[in-house]
Write a structure and sequence with these properties.
Elements (H helix, E strand, L loop, with lengths): L1 H5 L4 H12 L8 E2 L3 E3 L5 E3 L4 E2 L3 E3 L5 E3 L4 E2 L2 E3 L9 E3 L3 E2 L4 E2 L4 E2 L4 E2 L4 E2 L4 E2 L8 E2 L6
Amino acid sequence: MQNLNTQRHYECEARQLISEITEQKIPKSTEIRLPFYTDYGHNIKIGERVFINSNVMMVDLGGITIGPGAYLLSVKHGLKPKQRKELELKPVLIKKNVWIGARATICPGVIVGENAVVAAGAVVTKDVPKNTVVAGVPAK
């Protein structure tokens, strides 16, 4: 982790280092902006077409799975025309052992409970209780 975050790397070098940390091949369609932090790394599973922005910390001892093209959004815009340029910030919280399927979208302010599964393509607009599976648009 120290080498990854303190040295300059070409994209392919950074991908290789992250692959070593996570013990899985990181797909070329996945982009991880540095710095990237994890306490363990071996329990992170990252699919195709995932974008992870800079300064993300993944505490992964319990496991983190992010499906291809998943969106976790903590920002929304106002609905009224005069408010559309204003940003409302609401954190997203993903609890332990959550599985987020391909192309799922987690909207601002949502908490996904422990052991929950968010199905592929789901749009999650409300909190997901622990030990449940949600699917659909909006997810239920």
